[in-house]
Design goal:
The protein has 8 helices and no strands. The chain starts with a helix and ends with a helix. With 128 residues, the protein is mainly alpha-helical.
Length: 128
């Protein structure tokens, strides 16, 4: 679990620094849809038996080319660790923090922030 949180944090930090948090969130949604429609992608990208060059060729296919380079690098990292099957959990982690950070200007004190945080966590837990 710690690895997934760590990798999600890396992606989230890069996205926030580059101002593309919304784009990465959209890419995660598209990736989940792609994997739901083509579950073989997950098995292949997770497989320790597929040569790395073949995995990189797959990540250069048209289905992935529309994604931001940070998302592709994230997938390469997960693939190298045989953790592509964790994408849904990484997405939930990313979305939870994305939702909180995107709402930050709306709170003016600690009580408002805690209330917002509790709402967002409840919403994420209900979706899971």
């Amino acid at each position: 679990m710690r690895e997934k949180r760590f990798y999600s944090e890396l992606l989230r930090t890069a996205a926030r620094n580059e101002g593309i948090s919304g784009k990465i969130s959209d890419d995660f949604r598209n990736l989940r849809y792609l994997f739901d429609k083509n579950p073989d992608y997950v098995r292949i990208l997770d497989s320790p038996y597929i040569p790395r060059g073949e995995l990189m060729r797959i990540l250069n296919e048209e289905a992935f080319l529309k994604m931001d380079r940070y998302m592709i690098d994230f997938l390469r990292l997960l693939s190298g660790m045989h953790m592509v099957h964790c994408v849904n959990e990484c997405f939930r982690e990313y979305e939870m923090y994305y939702a909180i950070y995107s709402e930050m200007p709306k709170w003016s004190n600690l009580e408002d922030f805690i209330g917002l945080l509790e709402e967002k966590i409840e919403g994420v837990q209900q979706e899971a």
